[in-house]
Structures
1.
Amino acid sequence: MIAVATRRNLGLAALAWFLLIAAAVTGYWVVVIPITRDPLANDFTLAFISARIGLEHGWNHIYSLSLQHQLFGQLRPGVFFNDGQRYLAPPPLAWVTALLTGLGAANAFYAWLVISVAAIVGCWWLAAPGRALSRWMWLVGAFAWYPVLYALQYGQPAPLVLLAVLACWKLAEKDMPYRAGLVLALGTSLKPQLVLAVPIVLLFSGRWRIALAWAAGLAVLAAVAIAMLGAGGLADYRSLLAEAQTLPNNRYFTLAFLLGPGPLSYVAQGVVLAAAAGGAYIDRRASTGRVIALGLVAGALGASYWHLQDFMVLLGAAWLFWRDDPPLWQRAWLVSVALTIELAWPLGPIPLLVALGIWFAFLLAPSRRRSRARAITTAA
């Protein structure tokens, strides 16, 4: 027994060193070098621009293409304002970013980077499985994974969105469903496509209180946003979203890559979401963590607008799935998921879509564990 434990600890230590080196090297190339060269060459700058527009010209103008172009030219003179340089996120992200505008564009990005790193650590603290060294390895591994580093480089809100999802799970586990739903609504408002399937599976699994609070919270935020935008602002937003839907890079990592951007891909995405809802209903006695993991994976597989950095939310799905104590061979499959996403640029989207689809199938199968709090969370 001592020899087995020693070999296991040595193996964990070796893996920890490998992940630490990978995190340092990859982080240097993916995060440090790009942001030191140009701290404004990221998506956060677009949110900063819209926040500035809102503060200086009124929040009904944050989707004005001419104003975005004008301020972009001031912040990044000489850089071409192409079709990837539009602010497309919902208004709440601009509202949050407005709190940092007094720092200036570059310092605001650095502050956002610190907040994002803290959010990832918070995600790990809330949900990472294991104890001692094995738990710390999840944190090191997170910062070694390309989608996480890519999200940090671009100043994406994904870390905050994932933190909201995992906080929702934690609150649900503590029998606080309404608070859980409100927190999930806050995260959804920053980048909806990352988590839209989560409230669907929560509802179909019988956790209607969480879904109700989510819908109520999101409705309030949407009402405020619509009131601030007005008819003109909504028209500007619809125009930008319509343009974004025509860009191939926005659907490169989705089923539309295989099926084309037409009706067939929308049918396939609908099938994924319907299967997730059905699976959540059939396995409604499963743990809340497993249900949320199903929602995150379904959202990634059934998305119509997705980028490589968005896959970082699967970090939370992996932790919650692992906590559900799946069979060893299913846990081993997560390595395939991680590697196909890590190598998505050279391999292309097909391997990761296949790996993700198989993981999705695992989650659709009934869990061998049951939620200890099931009677509470489904009570009328």
2.
Amino acid sequence: MNPNSNFRFCPQCARPLSFALVGERDRICCDDPRCGFVHWDNPVPVVAAVVEHEGKIILARNVAWPRNFYALVTGFLESGESPEIGVQREVEEELGLEPLAANFIGLYDFFRKNQLLIAYHVPARGTVKLNEELDDWKHVAFDQVTYWPGGTGFALRDWLAAQGYAATLGEAPQIRS
């Protein structure tokens, strides 16, 4: 079971939930056989952008993150939205930039948050104007960025490698001094 799942009562009939073997996995289920609710706990699709702006990569800091913690722009897909459109929307919303394209990098698991990351390289132009989700951003030269061992870090590593750069592994999303 995903530790992010905190269901205690059935969302359909309000009875207590318990664990049962369903589809060869322990799943949270309703105790009432007439209800039949099963919490499948499927991963959530999230888009991630390696934003290229003025010949550098943009790393951003979410308002809830520690002071030196920077990462790629990410966001949830809207209902009926393709990943290509979603990643461009996130770049426009969070950074105020005009995305010029969305070039697929790859799919990455992020088990800790029960997410499936869909990563793109997004060249963009304009002046950065952060929205309320972000409180800082950095332009980082391709040869100065470190990637982190998880989540969107692997997408950044793979994109840098495809551009001919040997990325350095860091401990967390951060800027090399």
